[in-house]
Amino acid sequence: MSHKLASALLAALFLAISSLAGAHAEQRAPATNAAATLSPDEARRALETLQDDQKRAQMIDTLRAIANVSGQQQPASSAPEQKSPIPLSADGLGAQLLLTVSEQIGEISGEIASAARTLTHFPAFYYWIVRTANDPAAYNLLIEIAWKLALVLGCALSAEWVIFRLIRRPVAFLEGRVPQTAHLPAQATLVADPPSSVADVTPAPELHKRRHSLMRIWQVLLRLPFVLGRLVLELLPVFVFVGIATALLGTEIGEPTTVRLVILAVGNAYAFSRGLICVVRALVGPFGLLPVRAETAAYIEIWARRIVAVGVSGIAFANVALLLGLHRAGYAALLRMVMLVVHLFIVVIILQCRRQVAEAIRAPAERPGIAARLRNRIAGGWHYLAIALDLALWAVWALNIRNGYALLLQYFVGTIVVALITRIAIMLTLGLIDRGFRIKPEILQRFPGLEIRANRYLPLLRKIVSGVIAFIGFVAVLEVWGVDAIVWFYGGQIGSRLISAVVTIGIAVFIAAAIWEISNALLDRQINALSRDGHYARAARLRTFQPMLRTALLCVIAAVVGLTALSEIGVNVAPLLAGAGIVGIAIGFGSQKLVQDLITGLFLLLENTVQVGDNVSVSGLSGVVENVSIRTIRLRAGDGAVHIVPFSAVTTITNASRGAGNASVSVNVAYKEDTDRAGQILKDIVDEMRREGDFRALIRGDLELWGVDKVDGAMVSIVGQIRCTEAGRWPVQREFNRRMKQRFQQNGIEVASATQTILMQIAPPADNAATLTPRRAAG
Fold first, then answer.
1. Which of 293, 305, 338, 504 could form a disulfide with 314 if both were Cys (CB 3.0 to 4.6 A apart)?
2. Which residues belong to any copy of the Mechanosensitive ion channel MscS domain (predicted)?
């Protein structure tokens, strides 16, 4: 059994027992008061004392002295008041709620303990077993009962077996003649005239169902004589068993009376069990009055045998024990336990068949409407109601409650009606809420984020409304069960104060949510307005501040709502505020590094040093700023790694995203090349790039050629820069370098190598002087 089912079962059983036991206690109260009346002699003596002046004066003095002594002893006996460790005010809602709950739990636990003592008298059963085992007369009586019972049962069972063998062929004959189930054809129409259309041939569904029902009734009537004959034949061995046993008990075997009664109890239990099983087989089964599948018939027969065996044998054993001297209380306890086992068997059957019954109750998939949804809801939880009703029936019988079944019927029907009304109210209310949260297209165009924010609170609102309606339904159920729950919500009662506190807290939460959403909406709207007007720097700065502002606002709102809730339930918030201040001072002294992070981060943000999206270098780490909190800065490096740097470790920040990013130009050409010609080629490259659409917005000016920066015997260095935007520095510089290489190759300009080339002339031999050529050596 699942936890959910177990909780529902215990709740139903608990409420049924407590409410019915309360009614039972109220009905027994007048009888108890009536029993506490004075006897005639006591009334006569009291009258004589009151009529005699001297005796009356003495009685008055005695009562006065007793009253004075008890009044003086009362303060001394009172225990010192203990203070609660929770700072609750004496008249606060929390204290009253705890007191009321504790009192209710004490009363209910007392009722449950009383009911348990009423149901369980197992010590009486134990004492009976011990007394019977130690009593020689009882032991001899048991021996006599045992051999006489074996004799009677042996003779009766033998006669039953003989009759059973004789009726096998007649039973088989009747089973072969039982009419089998005939299926109604899918289409059955009366053809009197040729059909004029397809609609004339198609039968109406209602007519088809009616014919099917009539056919089933006719089949049951045809099977009835054969089923009754088979039942009589199967009961014949049982009648023979009863007759033989009764005849034997009419002789000396049935003496004494106790022996005869014990054997009769056992024999009647066996005959009754056999008869019930025969009746079950006659009702359902392949040859029964109601034909079902063989698997279903076997399932019904198996559980019928279990229930009958436990119930009948348990009752028979209790009756035998009562005849042999068991106390009446032990007999009643034994009967209650036997019937509890039977009802638990029914619970098992309900759990095993819950899916099949649910499928039968559930509405078809194509059928919409409230009725279909109610059927689906009942199909999902019918077994909870069935189990609660089953155990409540056992509780009514076990507690012997007067008019218990009438009260149980009233409670059950009233609960079903209230549950249905509550469910309908919830569905209608939720439908209205869903319809109210549908935003018109023109409003969505004006406020794009309104639908997302509204849908964020829709599930919570649905749960709150459903909970409120369910609570009202629960109070109505308590009223149906006889609990005067409406009184709890009168003025000055705990219920009215609880509702007032819940409403106050709800209003505080609603105002807090409204402030939160309005603040976020204003921030988002301001950021969008700044971005739309071209104030990107201010928009980025506000976007950087947004997480910290939201965190601070959330902390303030949570603190205010929390203090309001604590104040409403009666908690004194002054000590909490004082303790929070002391804790804040302790944290400030104990975590100086954290305070340094907060202060440094606050000044960096106020001075607009970094913003989200900037390309910065912090503490030797470079990357794009993803988030700036009040304590740390988070960077996303070029390789995808994330660097989180606390502000206390920041000494220098290099920000490459402050509106300008210059692409540097530095090229080394060979010493022999014309530097003016090379510089003109570089300027032409920049002019060409500025005319292209991909680089026009990234380059802010022409090439600033600074000239020749360095000259040596191997190369000449030409330097300059291209003024770009902050986002165009690296794309422009990479594209410029690519085009510069191509142009130098096309124009034959040699880029100087990093290695130095030296020309050397070596003196040749005399015979090779005519063919002397210089050699180049790389150094």
1. 338
2. 594-658
pTM of this prediction?
A: 0.49
Q: 573-590 vs 592-606: helix axis angle to the nearest 10?
A: 90
pLDDT digits (tens, 9 = 90+) for 419-451: 888 888 888 888 888 887 777 777 766 666 666
CA angle 579, 580, 581 (to 5 degrees): 90
Residue 631 Cα distances to 546, 611, 654, 718, 756, angstroms:
14, 14, 19, 46, 54
**Strand pairing partners for 757?**
778
| Nearest-angstrom CA–CA distance, 637 and 624 | 6
Task: Return d(Cα 727, Cα 661) in angstroms, integer.
Answer: 7
Distance CA 411, CA 16 (A): 9
The SS3 assignment for 439 reads coil
Which SS3 state, helix, strand or coil, does residue 415 take?
Answer: helix
Phi/psi for 195 (5° steps) reads -65, 140
CB-based contact 752:671 (threshold 8 Å): yes
**Tens digit of pLDDT for each residue in 642-654?**
888 887 778 788 8
* Architecture field, domain 609-655: Roll (2.30)
pLDDT at 24 over 60: no
**Beta strand residue intervals within 579-649, DSSP E:** 615-618, 621-628, 632-636, 642-646
How many residues are present in the chain?
A: 779
The encoded tokens of residue 570 equal 């009666």
- Categorize the per-residue pLDDT at 117 as very low, low, confident or very high, splitting at 50, 70 and 90: low
Q: What is the pLDDT of residues 711-739, one digit of tens each?
A: 887 888 889 988 888 777 788 888 889 98
Q: Which residue has the tokens 């959910």?
A: 4
Q: What pLDDT score does 66 carry?
A: 66
DSSP code of 662?
A: P
> Is CATH 3.30.70.100 the right assignment for the domain spanning 663-747?
yes
Q: What count of Cα atoms within 13 Å lies in the side-chain half-sphere of residue 65? A: 6
